[in-house]
Amino acid sequence: MRNIPLKYLFLSLGILFAGSVGGWAVTYRLAGKDDSIEFVYWSILIAGGLLVIQAVLCFRAKRGLYSHLIFVAAFGLSIVWFMMCLVLPVMWIEAVSLCFRVGMLSLLVPLGIANILEAFRRFSAKWAERGEQLFAKEYKHEHATVNWYQVTKSLNLTGVIFIPGLPQRLVWLPSLLIIPSMLAGLSLRNVYPIFSIFAWGIPTLLIVSFFFQMIAYNLAQAAVVRKLEKKVGSVIQSVQ
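The chain above was modelled as a monomer; its predicted structure follows.
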């Protein structure tokens, strides 16, 4: 397993910085200078903490495929933070009641958990079908290496925005409505502020929950790799 290039850390830094600056600008516009400064404090704490964790995982990734997958999952949190910076400023808008603000953000909890569980469920089902056979085909015992990319590619894993209770035949609908809803929320922010928050915020939370699903896919893979390492008695490396 080759080291993860430092460019990915710099890319993560850029994503975290862009999200934080964007969130600060939105907070400044909607809530004023004092609240935007408070947003900056929280941004430094959260974004800085994520970057430190990613840096540690980046340098540990050379130890094997498991560590590599954990780093990829942690990298996904940078995108999550970027998207959250589009909706977190609503917490500082005093014109909208706290009940509405907290109520909207609290939707992320069931959506995020549902998408994480769905990712583990889907990966487990795909792996149970022929994961062991694909691994055995690609694994080189003498070097303890595997073409993990080929293994996961053959599993045909795909991600979709998952909403609990939404019929399978309608899974395409949220993706179709996200952009029009966000544009409507942006254009009506001064006329109907409460509607605007939900029209803008809920699609953003759906996107965030989708990235939680992508992160969970990597964590599910890492869990399987750990079990395989115990089975083969070696630290598994990936050739890609």
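The chain has a mean pLDDT of 88.
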